[in-house]
């Protein structure tokens, strides 16, 4: 059995979301849901946060707001290993120190990020599978509904091997990562994807970004490139991702999210 | 003076659009407008149709429907030289015959299309300028409102030199053309653009499509790539273009178009 435990009282928010903290096998997560009748099943979107970030970062709660209020979906995020409410290992500390050293020295971050994210993904993929197992036992989600995945940056490093290995995920939004550790897994993914990259990314070259997009086997795949540097991904791409999930998970976007 | 003449009685349609045929200096066009008080000024989107196509092709009227009903904009298209209600010259006939010959022989169409579209663009750019001059004299459009341009394929061959030469255009959607005759003009364009290309285009290589996108000087530019061949551009890219114009020309998209 998957030990889903809700660890907070359900708290309702002025923005109309039900927020519930949980753990699955000790991994802390958050589930955002519409304030509707629990008997009304709705699709689930699993999200993965970026590196150095955590499950309730505003980028996560902002996306959840759009997906829950706009589409009536459930949205869940878990902390990645070494992130958020989870302890760092000596290996985490060493890799983070190495990243900061390279950054300060003006050396490329890519080789370190690729290697460290690959390490974290190997730990996180079974955690995402167990989280999905557990959440699908909730009556308001269920085991036969559509499931989306949304993760950019480190969220893509975790999401590509997760989606490649889990046929329950039927649509995914990825972006902004190097192809090195991911292209082979991407070639196993056939569900519709939307993929974001930045045209002037100072870390990921155009060739690297395009190579990862190219690697997906999906017959329905869209690439959204925007002018700007790594951190300049425009906010309207979050709205676009919400419409992508609305198209593929089968709920129209209400005007409040359009 | 620019001789705008309405050549049809205004006809209203069940879909809520006012459609008026017009000519400017003898060039036939169509203006689609909301059924609102003419004193309410609204932004104008000029569109250019694709090769072998005409001003009222369903691709044009479908986009107009989205822009007028969804955003309250005016939308105008004129027939390109040798297209729609305009006569073909001997040069048009010869180029079209050459295109069909190359197609039947399995030769690349690109060199012929690039050359012929460049010829047509040289004729069409002053026609677009005159049309804009004339339409801006209508009280419901006016001379100081924002103006968008939307043209894919041949519409991009005409639109890139037009937008490069006319500072009244403040946002544009382009796509699906070779860079050869256009990259230099694109480098003069600084307004926000959205650009579509197809990842498996049998006529325009990835390198050619990306090179044209790269050439624009705009600091706000978005590239939308979709898996599929030349004619497979997904319909949801029309919705995306409408939202792009809503963002940049300053009208929210109503839920009916989202």
TrEMBL record, chains A, B:
It comes from the Bacteria. One of its GO terms (molecular function) is hydrolase activity. Keywords: Hydrolase. This is Alpha/beta hydrolase. It comes from Streptacidiphilus cavernicola.
């Amino acid at each position: 059995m998957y030990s889903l435990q809700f660890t907070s009282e359900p708290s309702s928010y002025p923005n109309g979301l039900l927020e519930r903290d949980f753990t699955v096998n000790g991994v802390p997560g958050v589930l955002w849901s519409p304030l509707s009748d629990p008997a009304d099943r709705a699709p689930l979107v699993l999200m993965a946060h970026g590196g150095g970030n955590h499950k309730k970062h505003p980028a996560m709660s902002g996306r959840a707001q759009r997906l829950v209020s706009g589409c009536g979906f459930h949205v869940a995020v878990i902390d990645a290993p070494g992130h958020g409410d989870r302890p760092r290992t000596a290996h985490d500390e060493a890799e983070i120190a190495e990243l900061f050293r390279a950054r300060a020295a003006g050396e490329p971050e890519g080789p370190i990020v690729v290697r460290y994210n690959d390490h974290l993904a190997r730990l996180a993929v079974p955690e995402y599978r167990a989280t999905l197992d557990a959440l699908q036992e909730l009556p308001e989600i269920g085991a036969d509904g559509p499931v989306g995945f949304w993760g950019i940056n480190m969220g893509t490093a975790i999401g590509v091997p997760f989606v490649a290995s889990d046929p329950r995920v039927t649509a995914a939004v990825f972006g902004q990562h190097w192809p090195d550790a991911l292209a082979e897994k991407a070639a196993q993914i056939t569900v519709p994807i939307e993929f974001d990259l930045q045209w002037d990314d100072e870390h990921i070259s155009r060739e690297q970004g395009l190579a990862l997009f190219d690697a997906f086997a999906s017959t329905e795949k869209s690439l959204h490139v925007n002018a700007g540097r790594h951190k300049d991904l425009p906010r309207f791409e979050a709205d676009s991702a919400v419409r992508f999930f609305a198209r593929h998970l089968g709920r129209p976007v209400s005007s409040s999210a359009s």
